[in-house]
Recover the amino acids of this structure.
């Protein structure tokens, strides 16, 4: 009798577990809830990417503030016997410095989706390249004495801006075309530049500079895309469901303790991580 009772209880327990499991699997709204959690996770990652984009653009603008005036001695050396040319180059330097300063100041309190961020992400770099191309034309025409400055701008952007290659293409392509487009546009109404293009040696130099610009564009796109993938993986790894890891504050044999931001509560918590579970408690403010 006790054995039959034990078997009956065991069968009943098994039946209850199957019913509960079936209800959990077929629970109404479970699929939608899973989708919602996935969307929350994706939005959190995209938000972090946007915040980092603003910080990186601000750093790039700060570097630009240092680069523009640092080449003034080169301008003085090149145009030492031509006061008018030197004045024109210094004015161009001032315009570039002002552009970087405006970007830096506007990005200090910019939202990740603001027009300021979009301007600093693409048009500001393109305008800088056009300005460099114009300076190069003033010095020696299509020889492109300052044309390598465009490659410097491309390298600067690739170092700080991480984005998919499709977005990068819309930025780096006009940057690399700034010099050849400026030369061809100037040749349309300047006979001296047109004569330079007809010269075999100068034309070869112009084509070489343009090729270097396109090569820098390909390098920038590949580098920016690779950096974006690495950062994306890092963002994904630092998000646990509704938690965003911010800083590790301890490590021991049982696991790690992190300061994490709860996306739902919008406050910091202490998150204990180990190989089997995650436990949380409110982090004191």
């Amino acid at each position: 009798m006790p054995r039959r009772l034990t078997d009956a209880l065991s069968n009943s327990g098994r039946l209850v577990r199957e019913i509960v499991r079936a209800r959990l699997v077929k629970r109404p709204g479970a699929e939608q809830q899973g989708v919602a959690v996935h969307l929350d996770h994706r939005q959190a990652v995209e938000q972090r990417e946007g915040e980092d984009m603003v910080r990186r653009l601000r750093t790039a603008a700060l570097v630009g503030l240092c680069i523009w005036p640092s080449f003034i001695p080169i301008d003085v050396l090149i145009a030492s016997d031509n006061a008018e040319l030197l004045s024109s180059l210094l004015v161009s330097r001032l315009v570039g410095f002002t552009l970087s300063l405006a970007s830096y100041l506007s990005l200090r309190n910019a939202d990740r989706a603001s027009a300021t961020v979009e301007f600093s992400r693409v048009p500001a770099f393109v305008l800088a390249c056009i300005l460099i191309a114009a300076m190069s034309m003033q010095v020696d025409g299509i020889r492109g004495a300052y044309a390598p400055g465009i490659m410097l701008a491309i390298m600067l952007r690739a170092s700080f801006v991480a984005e998919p290659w499709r977005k990068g293409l819309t930025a780096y392509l006009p940057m690399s075309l700034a010099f050849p487009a400026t030369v061809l546009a100037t040749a349309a109404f300047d006979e001296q530049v047109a004569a330079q293009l007809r010269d075999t040696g100068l034309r070869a130099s112009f084509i070489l500079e343009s090729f270097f610009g396109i090569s820098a564009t390909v390098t920038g796109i590949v580098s920016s895309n690779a950096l974006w993938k690495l950062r994306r993986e890092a963002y994904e790894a630092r998000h646990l469901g509704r938690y965003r890891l911010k800083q590790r504050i301890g490590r021991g044999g049982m696991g790690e303790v992190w300061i994490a931001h709860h996306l739902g509560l919008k406050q910091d918590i202490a998150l204990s991580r180990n190989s089997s579970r995650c436990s949380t408690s409110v982090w004191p403010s």
